[in-house]
Amino acid sequence: MKNLTPTQKQIIISIAWLLPLMLGSFLVGNVYAKKIKKINNDNEQKKVMLSLLKTQTDSESRLSAQIKMTKNFDAELKEAIPAASNLSPITDAIGSLAQKYGIASSISVSGPQATDKMIHASPLYRMDLKATLSNATVGSFQKLLSDLEGQPYFFSVDSFSFKSASGSGWHDNSSITLIGHFYAENRVE
Asked: What mean pLDDT do residues 62-78 have?
């Protein structure tokens, strides 16, 4: 250091002071870089968690909608398949629809006959139905059948026959025999 000029000595002293400051700045910068990286990782984890939460929420929404649809289906199924112990809802529906169109009706139900079909872990029963309709025209009978299709009951028409009262055809008042069947469940109401 003896052969150094005062300017060179000043440079060395400045470097000696700057070196620890640069090293300190590097260490502080490294610490903050690690903190920033940790915050980024936390943000990435939060994004992943948010995405998983959104997916779970969407799944829960779909599941909730399916459960609601299933509950509605169970209620509709219960309404469509009456209890074998109480057939009056279906016979009353047919009778009141016939009365709506000025048709006199006499309804008889036979059965129940067990089927191989199951509902709620119990067999479905087939119930045969015979409705004798009088004072019916082809137009009123068509309206009756159309309204029967709108009923919640699972009812199937197997056959029907017309007998004209006046001999002038089925456009006049006729007697109609409607043969069909529906299913009932073995439950108590």
From this structure: 68
- What number of H helices and E strands is found in the chain? 3, 4
Residues 74-111: tens digit of each pLDDT? 666 666 677 666 778 888 888 998 999 998 999 998 87
3-class secondary structure per residue, 32-98: HHHHHHHHHHHHHHHHHHHHHHHHHHHHHHHHHHHHHHHHHHHHHHHHHCCECCCCHHHHHHHHHHH
Angstrom distance (rounded) from CA 65 to CA 94? 34
Q: Are 173 and 185 in contact (CB under 8 A)?
A: no
Q: Give bridge partners of residue 155 from the DSSP assignment.
A: 182
CB 103 within 8 A of CB 140: yes
Q: Please report, for residues 85, 110, 130, the alpha-carbon distance to residue 183 in angstroms, rounded to integers and kept in the order given.
A: 12, 12, 14
Distance CA 19, CA 99 (A): 107
CA 124/CA 105 separation, integer angstroms: 27
pTM comes to 0.54
What is the C-alpha separation between 42 and 54, in angstroms, rounded? 18
Are the C-beta atoms of 66 and 124 separated by less than 8 Å? no
Q: What is the DSSP letter of 184?
A: E
Give the pair of three-digit tokens for residue 156.
Answer: 């199937």
Peptide bond into 112 cis (omega under 30): yes
